[in-house]
Write a structure and sequence with these properties.
CATH architecture of chain B: 2-Layer Sandwich
Distance between the termini of chain A: 15 Å
InterPro entries (chain B): STAS_dom, STAS_dom_sf
Helix content of chain A: 25-40%
Largest sheet of chain A: 8 strands, antiparallel
Structural class of chain B: alpha/beta
Radius of gyration of chain B: 12 Å
GO molecular function, one term (chain B): anti-sigma factor antagonist activity
Protein name (chain B): STAS domain-containing protein
Number of domains of chain A: 2
Pfam family, one (chain B): STAS
Order of helices and strands of chain A: EHHEEEEEEEHEE
Helix content of chain B: 40-55%
CATH class of chain B: Alpha Beta
Largest interface: A-B, 30 and 27 residues
Domain STAS (chain B): 26-111
Radius of gyration of chain A: 17 Å
Strand order of the largest sheet of chain B: 1-2-4-6-7
Number of helices of chain B: 4
CATH superfamily of the largest domain in chain A: Histidine kinase-like ATPase, C-terminal domain
Distance between the termini of chain B: 29 Å
Number of helices of chain A: 3
Strand content of chain A: 35-45%
Number of strands of chain B: 7
Structural class of chain A: alpha+beta
Oligomer: heterodimer
Number of strands of chain A: 10
CATH architecture of the largest domain in chain A: 2-Layer Sandwich
Shape of chain A: globular
Number of domains of chain B: 1
Chain lengths: 178, 112
């Protein structure tokens, strides 16, 4: 088994978004990544970095890029604000309160063709997935205006988040078919 | 200015001037498109020909503009998406919400 990996640093400034994405793309091209994988990586990385810029709170963010066994894995780590999601006016912030969360599935938001859901492994880990909806007719006025998590989840083979209680670190892991 | 607007017959073509269409320009982009729609145009072509990439914030602004247009009985179409941007539209099915044209001139010609 061969594994190639490289770490990138993001200082949470808008000016770095595109150059960092291009640096990751260049690394992956050197490892033989094809056009489709590159296109997907650009989308996913851009959203991971944008999310960090919006929500991290100015802390430094690290992106580990690994290629192994048919997958490219992007892992975003930071010690900034933990993930928080507003669902129907109710704010869920990680780590979630209580130890009874494992096995629950939550609805995060839906758009005109898909429902973004999250499977809770425990009060610290969530795995995102999309349930497709057969659209009857798209009601344009009901279209969502927030697409970040949906873009990453749709583009990836798997996408999950974990809050490490010991180190107070956020960790987003996105795996893309190579 | 994020967009440069130009009348083309009964249409307005709004050409995005930035290469990086991301969260730093999304709010201004939305405000400018809303102002064009409030100005009375019924057919707005958003030209992405100069844009390298878009992020979810910018797409959110575009969708908000579409909703505002619908409320004003106007239409917003998009043109000249590069392969990456077209792929993003298709990924989250925005290709079902917007008419997509290869170029702004074709979008203008296609005006019903």
């Amino acid at each position: 088994m061969s594994t190639d990996a490289k770490q990138f640093q993001f200082n949470n400034t808008a000016e770095e978004l595109y150059p960092l994405t291009i640096a990751v793309v260049e690394f992956l091209k050197q490892q033989g990544a094809g056009e489709d994988a590159i296109r997907t990586i650009k989308l996913v990385l851009m959203e991971l970095l944008t999310n960090s810029l919006k929500h991290c709170g100015g802390e430094q963010t690290i992106v580990d890029v690994t290629i192994a066994e048919g997958s490219i894995t992007l892992i975003r780590h930071d010690k900034g604000n933990p993930m928080a999601i507003n669902i129907d006016g109710h704010r869920m912030e990680w780590p979630l309160a209580g130890n009874h969360q494992g096995g629950r599935t939550i609805n995060i938001y839906s758009d005109h063709i898909g429902l973004l859901r999250g499977a809770l492994a425990n009060n610290r880990q969530i795995k995102f997935f999309v349930e497709e909806i057969e659209p009857e007719e798209t009601d344009m006025l009901q279209l969502p205006e927030h697409f970040g998590l949906m873009i990453i989840t749709r583009a990836c083979r798997s996408f999950d988040y974990e809050f490490d209680i010991d180190t107070c670190t956020n960790k987003f892991t996105a795996a893309i078919a190579f | 200015m994020i967009v440069q607007t130009k009348p083309e017959g009964a249409a307005i073509v709004a050409t995005i001037q930035v290469k990086e269409a991301n969260l730093t320009v999304a709010d201004a982009f939305k405000a400018e498109l809303l102002a064009v729609i409030d100005g009375g145009t019924k057919y707005l072509v958003v030209d992405f020909g100069e844009v390298l990439y878009v992020d979810s914030s910018f797409l959110g602004a575009l969708v908000a503009s579409l909703k505002h247009a619908i409320a004003n009985k106007a239409e917003v179409v998009v043109a000249a998406l590069n392969k990456d941007i077209l792929g993003l539209f298709q990924l989250i099915r925005l290709d079902k919400a917007f008419k997509i044209y290869p170029s702004a001139s074709e979008a203008v010609t296609a005006k019903p």
